[in-house]
Design goal:
It is built from no helices and six strands. The chain is mainly beta and 113 residues long. It has a single domain, classed as Thrombin, subunit H (Beta Barrel), CATH 2.40.10.270. It starts with 14 loop residues before the first strand and ends with a strand.
Amino acid sequence: MTAPRKPAPPGALRTRFVLEAPVETPDDAGGVVRVFASAGAVWAALARLSGSEGWEADREAQTLNWRAEIRFRAGIDAGMRLRRGTRILDILSVADPDGRRRRLVLDCRETAP
């Protein structure tokens, strides 16, 4: 069994992201169109977990896996994303590691062409 990770010190939360939530609207063909709308800003501490290169949608792409730590905020779930300029990190999972509602650990994936 591994020891729990220590929380990031407050000064480590130095990367500002826009938190975005998916919004689906019906289209004329019976489907939906998904866009992302801003749900506020968050400060995060980032740690790179792994990376790989491969093909995605008939093009070569690099995938990076990140762990972001933020202050606790209700309503964040997988399917949302973090944006900083043109960088987009898709949130894959959300955890409150000690259950004390002080911080959230987000496992994210960034795909870059």
